[in-house]
Amino acid sequence: EEAKRAYDAGAAIVHIHARTDQGAPSWDASVFEAIQREVRERCPVLINWSTGGAGPMSERVKHLETKPHIAALNMGSMNYAKWSKSRESFAFKFVFQNSFDDIVAFAKAIKEADAKPEMECFDTGHVYSHTVLEDMGLIEKPYHFSFIMGVLGGIPATAKHLAFQASNVPEGSRWKVIGISREQWRLCMAALSLGGDIRVGLEDNFYLPSGEMASSNGELVDAGVNLVRLSGREVASVDEARQLLWPNGGCND
Prior knowledge:
By secondary structure, the protein is of the alpha/beta class. About 35% of the residues lie in helices and about 20% in strands.
């Protein structure tokens, strides 16, 4: 239902994490298969599976057998934390580990599933890591990058830093910004002015530009569409997004 709300509001792609009935992260392929089936019954939006998380990499690839259109691929390790200034303590802190062995293995699994990797970059060095996958023939142009900005331990969430990230991607690549929490809207505005794409949703931010709590992903997408149009651009339809990401065909259906 949330995928349909996002699609109806103007989203061409939905990024999806699976959960157990108790709310914990799930990597059960049958759960992803059920989500995929229900989404496709409701709308033709492009599906992007998460592969990130803790635990062995081998437990986070089975669901790619369901042949999503896109799959997320974390491109490097980092300290990952949230600091509370008022409490002078960490809300959480851990090492987000993504070794080159795992990056290559995920890239191979995504390629075997005929999916497009969404290369998620949390810091400046992560962008350059794509050259390894390029040399190994594991990614195909146009490359698809996501810049996650605002995580403590990663790149700061500023327009200046976003412009630097965008300057490092190969010509012809698609890139978008994922701003954490209230920085999401300022970064979306910056990305649109730089020619990039945007992603919004409850995974990263709960608030509308007004500061009001969003009631659904669809509300956030609707606000994102308004920003796109204010920038003088238009949102891509699903078919147009297919053409942008797979200009030579080959998108899973």
